[in-house]
Structure formats: structure tokens, C-alpha cells
Design brief:
30% strand; alpha/beta; 5-stranded mixed beta sheet; Ferric Hydroxamate Uptake Protein, Chain A, domain 1; 2 domains
């Protein structure tokens, strides 16, 4: 298996916390705007600015057996998914294809219409490739069950591409097939079978949530793109939930550039306590194959840029890193969720 460089693991826990979806929330949100006229208790604070990839803040990519820590020049990369990304933005997959061509590495791929994503056939005549990635300040790269051609590239991110077992690839593709099949069976409507929110004060369960795009990231994505954030926004729009969103450009030296959900109903994020989530097919729920906590469905990626097809679930929980692991409460774990739909 591909050996990761020491640079990938020298992040502080504070940076790790932020990328995972919770962070200190001390900003003034008095200028927040209403999200929905019919639900005045849902607000959004801050706007995306200067989010285009910057040539002076290049990310790096490594390809097992070929290249190590090659800078990605965002001025040279063009997206293969113009149905997803606006001009100037692109994916992890786009970065890989560009670097392979730039360094004369043979890469073969195709777009699979059933799985709704590009698949790598081979790199240098070798098969079964997958990736791990992490944004700036997020710790070690994580191996996600997430379409590589919808995973946004961001400044200073790190990408690793390496060979995995055929069984691992088959498991990932099976999850993609389940999502695509669900979308087709629902006549191309994105309907999420299960949404859970578990905190100290509430244990909610919503079923069969129909989702529409809300365009809170119109800087990066096209008009019809649906992200994980849209799941919660669709519930709020129907009056099933109240919430607040906060834009974070950075925290300390870590680049964020994303929206965080900082409130669900009466539960408000504060200090180093807030909401984390996992999303995908339940067959992949849990840590990544190397045993790390993050990976598979639980990633350091904010919901506003996590493009979805039609996942089986999204689960939210309260996480408090201001206390030691042994002291952290686990509210709702032994209680059945309340039906909220």
C-alpha cells in the first residue's frame, strides 16, 4: 500500500476539528439574511468570496509508482464535468487527468452513465485505482466513498492516487450504483430515505426527504447541482426544521471557504462543539479501510460542496472536542429517534 509522507499527518487537532464541520463560532451573525420568507427562523451569514483556485496556493497530487507531490496549476486544469462545475472550478479527478497528461503518464478512463461518474480504466496499464484527499489544515488524507469527479479541488489540498484491491473498487462502485438506482426509481428526484439529527436536546428522524437545489454555492456549481447542504435546507424550507448557516473563510492558518450549519432548532454550535455528519450508503458506514475514524462516508468536507446523487442517509450528531474523549456525552445514542416528518 502507498506510504504517506509525514507532511500529511502534521496537522493540529484544531485544524482537524474545523475541516470536519465544527469550529469556534465567535463571529457576529447579526447581518445574517433570511433563507426562506415562510420560515423566518432560518438564516445564512456571510457570502463566498475569492473562492476560485489560486495559482499562488497550489495543491499537490501524488500517483503511486509515478509521481510524488506534484503541484497542480489551477490555470491549466479544465473540468470534465461542466454539468457540475462553473468555469474556473474543477475536481480531484480533473487534477489527476491533467497531471497525467502533463507528465506523459498513460491514463484511460470513461464516463459510466449508470454510475453517473468517470471511472479510471487504467494508469500506466495498471488497474483498480482510487484516491485519498484532504483540504488544507485537515490532517491526513481520507479515502472516501465519493465520486472523484465531483470532489472539488481547493487551494493547498493534498491528493493521493493509488492502487487498491478489486474488492474495494467493487464495493465503492456498488455504492454508486445503489445511489444511481435510487435516483432512477424516483424518476430522477433526489429523495433521501433517512435523515437523523442526534444531539443533547433532540433525537429527530425524517424519512423520504425530497431535495431540491438552493444554490448557496452558485460561485462553484451550476444551477441544478444538489449538495448535502440542500437536504437540510429542503427540510427547513418545508417548515420541518429551523437552522442557521455561517460562512467561514478561514480559521487561523487553515483555509476553510465553506458554510457550516451552526444551529438545528434549539441546538447552537459554540466554542469547539457543534455538528458533524456522515452521508452515503449504510454498507460503507464507519471508518475507512485503514481503520482511521474519517473516511468512507465521514469526511472532512463541508456539506455545501459535497455533491450528491441520491444517498441512502445523512446522519448528524453533536460533537464536543472541548472535553476529553472519555468525558464527551453521547446524547441520544440509546434512545430511539423521534419521528419528525
Amino acid at each position: 500500500m502507498y506510504k504517506r509522507s509525514a507532511l500529511f499527518i502534521t496537522a493540529t487537532i484544531v485544524c482537524c476539528v474545523i475541516s470536519a464541520g465544527y469550529a469556534p463560532y465567535s463571529e457576529n451573525t447579526e447581518s445574517a439574511k433570511l433563507l426562506f420568507p415562510d420560515n423566518p427562523d432560518c438564516k445564512i451569514a456571510g457570502v463566498p468570496e475569492n473562492t476560485l483556485p489560486d495559482v499562488n496556493r497550489k495543491g499537490k497530487i501524488s500517483i503511486e509508482g509515478f509521481l510524488t507531490d506534484i503541484p497542480v496549476d489551477p490555470c491549466q486544469v479544465k473540468t470534465l464535468r461542466p454539468d457540475i462545475f462553473n468555469e474556473g472550478y474543477f475536481s480531484v479527478f480533473d487534477s489527476l487527468v491533467h497531471v497525467c497528461k502533463e507528465h506523459n503518464i498513460e491514463i484511460k478512463f470513461h464516463f459510466d452513465h449508470q454510475l453517473r461518474t468517470h471511472l479510471i480504466d487504467s494508469i500506466g496499464k495498471k488497474k483498480n485505482w482510487w484516491y485519498a484527499a484532504i483540504y488544507h489544515g485537515g490532517g491526513r488524507p481520507e479515502e472516501p466513498v465519493h465520486r472523484m469527479d465531483t470532489h472539488p479541488y481547493k487551494d493547498w489540498m493534498r491528493i493521493e492516487v493509488y492502487q487498491v484491491s478489486k474488492e474495494r473498487i467493487d464495493r465503492i462502485y456498488s455504492a454508486f450504483g445503489a445511489e444511481a438506482g435510487r435516483l432512477s426509481s424516483n424518476k430522477n428526484k433526489v429523495i433521501i430515505p433517512e435523515v437523523l439529527i442526534r444531539t443533547a436536546n433532540q433525537n429527530l428522524r425524517f424519512t423520504n426527504v425530497e431535495v431540491r437545489p438552493h444554490r448557496i454555492r452558485s460561485d462553484m456549481f451550476g444551477a441544478d447541482v444538489i449538495t448535502a447542504a440542500d437536504i437540510m435546507l429542503s427540510l427547513a424550507e418545508r417548515g420541518k426544521l429551523t437552522l442557521d448557516l455561517l460562512w467561514r473563510d478561514q480559521f487561523g492558518r487553515a483555509l476553510i471557504q465553506g458554510y457550516y450549519f451552526i444551529r438545528f432548532n434549539k441546538d447552537q454550535a459554540h466554542d469547539r462543539a457543534g455538528f458533524t455528519y456522515s452521508l452515503g450508503e449504510k454498507i460503507n458506514d464507519g471508518p475507512d479501510p485503514r481503520g482511521r475514524r474519517f473516511g468512507n462516508n465521514f469526511l472532512h468536507i463541508t456539506t455545501d460542496i459535497r455533491v450528491i446523487v441520491s444517498p441512502q442517509y445523512i446522519h448528524w450528531r453533536w460533537t464536543d472536542l472541548s472535553r476529553s474523549a472519555g468525558q464527551r456525552p453521547r446524547p441520544g445514542r440509546n434512545e430511539p429517534p423521534s419521528p419528525a416528518d
